[in-house]
Predict the structure.
Amino acid sequence: MLTGHRPAAFTLLLLMLLTSCAAPQLRPRSWEDPSGEIGLASWYGVPYHGRRTSSGEVYDMYQLTAAHRDIPLGSWVEVTNLNNARSLTVRINDRGPFVEGRIIDLSYAAASLLGITGPGVVPVRVRLSQPPVGGFGPALYSVQVASFSAESSAQALKAELERKVSGVHIVKALVSGDHYYRVRVGNFASQTEAKATAERLAGLGYRVLIVGSEGRP
């Protein structure tokens, strides 16, 4: 009687082993890795300008935004063009790109600042800078005056700017293993507000750039 049950018991054991081997293994998504996600970036502009994004916002190609397949909407990410080392912080407000090998679709404004509009598609690193806080919220913008590898230089410029404008702060960033200290002014709710400060600083002789802000000093 025992002998007659062996085939059935063996088959059951084999099925259990196969099922356990086939069970999916949960792995962190590449963009969750602190070192960032590396892949190709593209950009989108005129045909989509004015259309609704996946977040419900109307797409504005002149804002610093981007589309990603699964980074939470409202997150801020740092995108680095690996061809020229330019970095920019943008807000995820749309889904895409749905082309094999591409990991992020940038707005026209973001792509222009990163030097991507010419080649169209370039290798980039995408690093999560800040997840959405309290759900999907309004964009924030800052005016970047300079970026230094030495913190002392950033502190010196900060002290100089504080004699002329308010809201000066330093954002520390890690790019390709190197630390940079970015001197920025303000956290503005709109690009128009940031532009007014940018024009004032440009009039004082500073080279400025309006960037997406992480929303914290």
The beta strands are 37-44, 65-67, 76-81, 87-94, 102-107, 122-130, 141-148, 168-175, 178-188, 209-212. Confidence is low (pLDDT under 50) at residues 1-5, 18-27, 213-217.
